[in-house]
Design the sequence.
């Protein structure tokens, strides 16, 4: 007999089961995930038999809200991509003018400088020739963003 219950972790209505799939039973976990929230801790950790990975932004200038939790630093960092302008598919425009208003630790400010230096196709602005923008590939930007998150 099926019993309805509410998942303690994601508050979704789910069917209670007398057994829990094995950690490596990918098909069963995939089926169960259809009924839980996308970031349900019970599903992500396979009923707490896998470690929980939690990340946070290490730099003040990345601000809030933080991206949703992910299983890797790279996937968590991917949540910051919308902060940047996608210039063309897979290429992001980095505005060096923004750097003049950045705050944070010396490490954070150096991170921004290194990010600006890593851009290509640098173009000065007509109204302020000392300021410019450049492009960077999504993979390279994610490499930088990974350095700006930390596991907690």
Sequence:
């Amino acid at each position: 007999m099926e019993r309805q219950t509410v998942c303690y972790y994601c508050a979704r209505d789910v069917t209670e089961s007398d057994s829990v799939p094995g950690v490596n039973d990918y098909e069963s976990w995939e089926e169960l995930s259809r009924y839980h929230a996308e970031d349900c801790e019970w599903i992500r950790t396979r009923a707490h038999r896998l470690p929980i990975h939690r990340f946070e932004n290490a730099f003040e200038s990345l601000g809030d809200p933080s991206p949703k939790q992910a299983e890797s630093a790279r996937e968590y960092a991917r949540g910051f991509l919308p902060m940047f302008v996608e210039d063309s598919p897979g290429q992001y425009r980095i505005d060096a003018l923004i750097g003049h208003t950045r705050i944070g630790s010396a490490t954070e400010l150096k991170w921004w400088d290194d990010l600006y230096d890593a851009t290509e196709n640098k173009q000065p602005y007509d109204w302020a020739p000392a300021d410019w923008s450049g492009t960077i590939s999504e993979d390279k930007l994610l490499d930088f963003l990974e350095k700006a998150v930390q596991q907690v």
The chain has two domains: 3-44, 55-151. The chain has five helices and eight strands. Residues 3-44 form one domain.
